Amino acid sequence: RTVISVPPTDQRVIKGTTAILDCNATHDPRVNISFKWDRGGVPVRPSSGGRVSMRQGSLTIGQTWSGDIGDYTCTVTSQAGNDSRFARLEV
């Protein structure tokens, strides 16, 4: 079964700094997993300028501002099951 073992945690950051929301999962190594993030039901996509990026399960938001405030949900999907957890980001 695929489950989130390291859920994202609520964060409060100073405007203009970087926020990192970690998300990691345990799973059967024979099964491929994928991570996705959304904020309020809207998918979060990496930005072309690199301000928003994803690496494995972690979401990094640079140069934070008030428009980044919200509940971010990390979802892991695989053939062995899905799991999701959310965290609040305050700027």
Query: Class by helix and strand content?
Result: mainly beta
Distance between the termini: 35 Å
Helical content stands at under 10%
Q: Which geometry do the CA atoms define? A: elongated
Strand-and-helix sequence, N→C? EEEEEEEEEE
Whole-number average pLDDT? Answer: 95
| Number of DSSP E strands | 10
How do the strands line up in the largest sheet?
A: 2-10-9-5-6
User: Strand fraction band?
Assistant: over 45%
Low-confidence segments: none
At a glance:
The protein is mainly beta and 91 residues long.
Give the SSE layout:
Layout: E1 3-6, E2 11-12, E3 19-21, E4 24-26, E5 33-39, E6 42-43, E7 52-55, E8 58-61, E9 70-78, E10 83-90
Parallel strand pairs: 2-10
Antiparallel strand pairs: 1-4, 3-8, 5-6, 5-9, 7-8, 9-10
Structural features, described:
- This protein is mainly β and 91 residues long.
- Helix content is 0%, strand content 51%.
- It has no helices and ten strands.
- It has strands at 3-6, 11-12, 19-21, 24-26, 33-39, 42-43, 52-55, 58-61, 70-78, 83-90.
- The chain has a five-stranded mixed β-sheet with strand order 2-10-9-5-6, with no helix packed on it. A three-stranded antiparallel β-sheet has the order 3-8-7, with no helix packed on it. A two-stranded antiparallel sheet has the order 1-4.
- Strand 9 (70-78) and strand 10 form a beta hairpin.
- It is elongated, with a radius of gyration of 13 Å.
- The termini are far apart.
- The model has no long low-confidence stretch (mean pLDDT 95).
